[in-house]
Every structure is written in C-alpha cells, then in structure tokens.
Amino acid sequence: MSDVFWIHLTDICSSVGLFSSVIGNCTLLILLCGRSVSGIGSYRYLMITFCIFSLVFTLLEKFMRPLMHHYNNTIMVFQRKRFDFSNSFARILSASYCGCFAMCFVMFAVHFIYRYYVACRPDKLSYFRGRNYFYWIIGMFLVALSWVAFAYAFFQEDHETRIDEEFVLSTCYDLSLQDVGYVPYAFVSPKNDIW
C-alpha cells in the first residue's frame, strides 16, 4: 500500500480519535468535577490534569495533521497546513507538538510517583495535596516548555534538509513544500553507526 493511502487512513483515524477523546475526556471531567467520590483525594486533580492535557493534545494533533518520517538519518515532522499561516506560527505549532510529547512522558512519571506513594509511602501523599500539587503541575509544564524552546531554537531547517523534505514529500506523500508548515528535524546518526 502506498504512503498516500496511509495518509487518508491516518486522517480518518484522527477524526475517530478526536471524537473518542472529546467524548471520553468530557465524560470523565464531568464525573470528576460533578460527583463527590470519597477516598480518591488528590488523585482526582491528577486525573483532571490528564483529561485537560489529553484534550489539548488531541486538538493540536487534529489541527496539525502531522506526518513523521525518517529519511537520510533525519527524523522529520511534517505539519500539513489547513490554512495559509506564517512560518513563525507554524514553527511554534511544531515546537508545541514536540513539547506535548515530552509532557506525556512527564505526566506518566508523575502518575507513577503518585501510585508509588499510595502503595508504599502513604505518609508522603502530602506532597500531592494543596499547594504542593501546583508545584507538580508547574514542574511538568517547565519540562514541556523546555522541549518547546529546544525544538524552536535548535531544530531549524537548512539547505540540505530542505532538499530531503522536497524529495520525501514528492515521492512518498505526493505533497509539495507549500502543503506543509515548518518541519522540525532531528539528526539521528551517521549511516555506518550501529546502535
């Protein structure tokens, strides 16, 4: 099957995913905010944070319609434009998408810390109560913002990657550079390196 077919399939799946995410997360938010469930304590706020972040990430994904491609030792994230917006805005969107990936991992780490405290160190749950919980949120956002800043500052296009982008877009996806926004890239490794 061609890559163009997979683009169409990905677009359909992203619409289904957006619908599922909105329905599921909104339902969970209503239950978490509207119903008083005793015994879950600060876990409720952790789950509310997860729901809100999931909605934001899903909406960003649907808006950007990203394609990730590995070619010539470079990982590229193509952002298929829906509107004709500026390159600086496209660059901020792409960097934000990278930050969302970082935020996912950080949120899972915080979740595992919370679960560890519940199971093994219940006396430490005070670290997740009251004002302390906001420190966790601030810490998660700072890690994500550092990824956004790093992607924005260091993953810039140059002449060589521009040629690679044109080749990949035309041969694999039947797209042109006008169809995509800013493309952050990451250098992987020389061809003769073995991992």
TrEMBL record:
Q: Name one Pfam family in it.
A: 7TM_GPCR_Str
Which keywords accompany this UniProt record?
Membrane, Transmembrane, Transmembrane helix
Q: Where are the transmembrane segments?
A: 12-37, 43-60, 89-113, 133-155
Q: Which positions carry the signal peptide feature in this UniProt record?
A: none
Official protein name in the record:
G_PROTEIN_RECEP_F1_2 domain-containing protein
Supply the source organism for this entry: Caenorhabditis tropicalis
